[in-house]
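Hey, resending since the last one bounced:
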Amino acid sequence: MSINFSTANTRRLPVYLLLDTSSSMAGVKIVGVQNGVTMIYQEIMSDPRAASTVYISIITFADQAYQMPLVPITQFTPPNLTANGMTALGGALHLLNESLDSDLIPNQGGEVKGDFKPLVFLLTDGQPNDHWQTEAQRLLSRSTTANIIGIGIGTDADMNVIRQLTKTALLMQDVNPQSIRNLFQWVSGSIKTASQAANNPNAAGGQVNLPAAPPGLVIQL
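The structure tokens again:
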């Protein structure tokens, strides 16, 4: 699996985590996601290069969607997550699209360089309960300007929906504490790999190979 930075040239690497916090995520799933977000924070903070590059925003969605503003990882505090309500995926995608439009620094040429392609991770375990198609089309149109990875948690996740958001869709079939931990270790490694590329203008073609997906995470074609 690879991501491409060839059309962006920047000082910041924006990272968005879209997290399903609906009632179906209660128990092992939400605890694993909570621990996973903390792991991402700790892993990036332990890497000075990544800590100087990564900006992060979390968007949670249940009955409604809420966004933590895009901030430097050094100013980020992992939130306390709880699971309840429905699955407002469309609301989450709207917040993401609005942030991609308004919060990113464009490349202005010369010595003023904009942000690298954002890295977006979407985690969901069910089906959306709101209108999401319009925002999904809006997001998919960004496939050349944002790296979007959709991850279904459990076999109840609607992969047909996720595949309409991104060409990079993965499914966690066996959901348990270790598989969720492996997932977030992979996300952390992916962010750090992308950060290294962001700081390496000589990366061949702007193409970056992400770590291999961990056991239990199956690429969906």
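The domain at 11-71+82-98+113-201+210-220 is CATH 3.40.50.410 (Rossmann fold).

Sorry for the duplicate.
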